Amino acid sequence: MDRVATDRFGRSKPFWFYLVLFPATFFPSIIPFMRGLFSYGRCDGNLRVLYLYAFIPFVVFTLSRSKMGPYILPLFGVATIIAVNCYYTIRSKWDGRIAIIIFFLICPAMALAGFAYKPLAPVQPYLAGASIATLLACILLSRMIYEDRFLSAGSIFLIGISIFGYMLVPTLETAMKGYARMTEKINGLDPGRQQEVIVYRDFLPSVSFYRQKLAIMALGRARELDFQKDESYRRWYVSSDTDLKGTVRDMKRVFVVTRPADIGEFEATTAFACTEIFAQRKHSAYDCSLK
User: Fold this and answer.
1) How many Å separate Cα 80 from the centre of its chain?
2) Is the model's pTM score more than 0.85?
3) Residue 153 backbone class (left: φ over 0; alpha: ψ -120 to 50; beta: rest)
4) Over the stretch 130-170, which tens digit does the pLDDT of each residue have?
5) Is the dihedral of CA 91, 93, 99, 103 positive or negative?
6) What are the tens digits of pLDDT across the range 174-225?
């Protein structure tokens, strides 16, 4: 109930959050989807059931105070089925035209991405080459705009763009909020998992997952402790500077994951000296030893 009715988990978004997010991320498929919705009375029974299947959870998520973009991802599968059905049964001459305009806009967007977004600068030559290939594909697509095969050909085109985007992920990883490579770096320095990892002033379960060993969460999010049957959890949950000092008292070396702005406070509190070993946009990793 707290997750739905309050902002206890710090995920509050405006009422209209999904009303904007869903059309924006489902574009241009949102066009035939909405055309079918406006013609709901003319749809067959199966399609109307699919609309209800998407609409009812969408309303629940919209009314909830706790909102995150991925919450509505499960709706996209059925929304795609609806959009394709409407594309074939309630087709408009504008569907193909709008789609091909968007496809053509992808070409300059790819060519300029490396200049507009610094993390992509190292792969600018690949982006330029992909932009030229995309332009040629768009020219071919424009010749079949009024044919039934346009939908399948356009889908293959978008799948190709998506695969190319996934190939760029390793380049962007340090600019994203990901922890796989960060933890790989820690594991490379400590393959035997002998040293502890402290997540300082945050709560990041991903670090424990990729480390395959529980990380100590220190001075981060307040947790529910009523269900704890004994005090063993305190080994992994540190809620004060005093507890933190006691936790690291017998440690000579520790890895710390925290925001760069907070590492100085950790050093001052614990008398450790830290060296950055992995930097990324939000959290970085540090190898810390006693001074």
Assistant:
1) 20
2) no
3) alpha
4) 999 999 999 998 888 878 788 888 889 989 988 988 888 77
5) positive
6) 666 668 888 989 999 999 999 999 999 988 888 999 999 999 999 887 777 7
Lowest mean pLDDT among 5-14, 51-60, 62-71, 189-198: 5-14
User: What pairs with residue 275 in β-bridges?
Assistant: 287
Q: What is the 3 state secondary structure string of the chain? A: CHHHHCCCCCCECCCCHHHHHHHHHCCCCHHHHHHHHHCHHHCCHHHHHHHHHHHHHHHHHHHCCECCHHHHCCHHHHHHHHHHHHHHHCCCHHHHHHHHHHHHHHHHHHHHHHHHCHHHHHHHHHHHHHHHHHHHHHHHHHCCCCCCHHHHHHHHHHHHHHHHHHHCHHHHHHHCCCCHHHHHHHHHHCCCCCCEEEEECCCCHHHHHHHCCCCEEECCCCCCCCCCCCCHHHHCEECCHHHHHHHHCCCCEEEEEECHHHHHHHHHHHCEEEEEEECCCCCEEEEEEEC
Phi, psi of 25 (to 5 degrees): -85, -10
